[in-house]
Amino acid sequence: MSPQSPTDTELWERVRDGDRHAFGTLFDRHARTVYNYCFRRTADWTAAEDLTSVVFLETWRRRDRVRMESASLLPWLYGVAANVLHNHRRGLRRHRDALARLPLPETTADDADDTAARLDAERQMRAVLASIDRLSRRDREILTLSAWEGLSYQEIATALGIRVGTVRSRLARARERLRADLGLPAEPVPPGRHREGGTTTYFAAEEIS
Known about the structure:
Elements: H1 8-16, H2 20-42, H3 45-61, H4 74-100, H5 109-132, H6 137-147, H7 153-160, H8 164-182
Helix pairs in contact: 1-2, 2-3, 2-4, 2-5, 3-4, 4-7, 6-8, 7-8
Pfam families: Sigma70_r2, Sigma70_r4_2
Organism: Actinomadura namibiensis
Family: Belongs to the sigma-70 factor family. ECF subfamily.
């Protein structure tokens, strides 16, 4: 964002007044980050695109009821995305078998490599998500916002509407359970420090840029 660019706070105040251009600027600024978050949670880049659209549609619909609590709109967008993903997961359980039988889109020689890379990323993410899915819904949300999105305790608390202390305790528990499930050794953490993205050491995955 250039020095002349309006801040998220300034843009959001205009959005609350119905300014679609300001909303488009916020979309351009944050859509890729929301998309990557949805991809990491679904391991499906097509679904991630659809879910990103739903997140911003819901954000626009609720614009007059939300006031920003930080300098960035992202924490609140993550909260909207978490709810959208929860609803998606419930629907996915009902339709998983049918979706699995859908044919892959046809590709040309020019985009075959890109498609193969995306599908490989999906396979990697599904393996990781198989373990993450065994966590509770709230623990999953906290873990992914911390490990993959790099949010601070306060930002996670804002996104999910919970206390910072709850974030700390549930994140520690989620990491411990996930490492045990994956057979990974525990990592020591210096007292008073937040290990940014600690579990991502083991969860390398493609990020769409």
